[in-house]
Amino acid sequence: MHKLLVIGSGGREHALTWALLRSPKVSHVYVAPGNGATASMAKVTNVALSSPTELAKFAKDHDVYLTVVGPEAPLAAGVVDAFQAQGLRIFGPTQACAQLESSKDYAKAFMKRHGIPTAAYETFTDPAAAHAYIDAQGAPIVIKADGLAAGKGVVVATTLDQAHAAVDSMLGDGSLGAAGARVVIEACLTGEEASFIIMADGKHILPLASSQDHKRLGDGDQGPNTGGMGAYSPAPVVSATIHDRIMREVILPTISGMQADGLPYTGFLYAGVMIGDGDDATRSIDVLEFNCRMGDPETQPILMRLRSDLLEALDAAVDGRLNEITLDWDPRTALGVVMASAGYPAKARTGDVITDSGADKDHKDVVVFHAGTSLQDQKLVTSGGRVLCVTALGDTVQAARELAYSRLGSIKFDGAQYRNDIAWRALTS
């Protein structure tokens, strides 16, 4: 029996904890820092630590068998390097490998160097040069903060005015801090986006189930970009042909390219891909972004479908044995709907009390994963932008959706925002 550590506080980390506890080999999971749900789960303890050195010391002192890193910030801060320096088992990319996410410019240059399909781009630190480039290229056009911006550093500008305002915001007023000190401006791609997530052990690749995220705040993909307002798995757009092409054209050259650059990649790798219109054998496939972690909220429906022992897969990955692992997936659809706080994504309000009248509370095919929640005076309150992800399994997309929204209807907090159309592409395709 093993003690594990999960680093992070969001819905992804709640889902990882939930999935790991299903392993007969796990006796306890520490979550740093965790949230309101992990604070009250059996066999789980929240730990108020965040620095890589403190986390490594905790893992050593508490005989932690293996650590899994959830979010991007600890990876960019070098938490994997700190653990490895102490001889501790941890699953995630090193700080150097995590540049695939922590620097958009690094990722774009890497893709260009290794022949991985992506939109044409230029990088700027000078606002005047960026504005001139926008005028020359026209709209629509995409403006991205170079660094980590919690899913909010991307503006898909449909007009020149929007594009210029995005550059002014990122390079001019410093609202994104160091993340926006440099911007990547790229061509706007059209098609259908999918999330393709794999595990890697430096040389071997194990793909996870496909999924599709919903980035925009409002129904019909309207409103500002967010960290994700819902997701479902599998994604119908990722046919067997498209799956093989993504592996061949994107994933394999990425892992071999990192090896060639002297940076063997171990960890989750998320490729956000835009799949163009047309026949599956010939339609375009372009990488929009890399994340060096599982996506949130994609993790929740993906792990709802995972029947295999997650710890066994993580163990094999840390040992370089991923080629020995096959994963068993529930054939049903899993669908998650995010409930977000008032004001999200601009300025999320916190401290609102969450109540749950309990409709479908004991349904075995529904799990409410917590993200921005905390316990205050024995009450569950909102503590972040995205608060919950209500996730359900169903024989069809429609059945999963009905079950998720039925459960969501019993959960209340002031100012709650959520989309009513999660998986609309799957239902109209």
From TrEMBL:
Single GO MF annotation: phosphoribosylamine-glycine ligase activity
Alphabetized Pfam families for the sequence: GARS_A (PF01071), GARS_C (PF02843), GARS_N (PF02844)
Pathway membership, UniProt: Purine metabolism; IMP biosynthesis via de novo pathway; N(1)-(5-phospho-D-ribosyl)glycinamide from 5-phospho-alpha-D-ribose 1-diphosphate: step 2/2
Sequence ranges assigned to domain ATP-grasp in this UniProt record: 108-319
Region described as Disordered: 211-230
Residues making up the signal peptide according to the UniProt record: none
Catalytic activity entry: 5-phospho-beta-D-ribosylamine + glycine + ATP = N(1)-(5-phospho-beta-D-ribosyl)glycinamide + ADP + phosphate + H(+)
EC category name: ligase
NCBIfam families: purD
Annotated protein name in UniProt: Phosphoribosylamine--glycine ligase
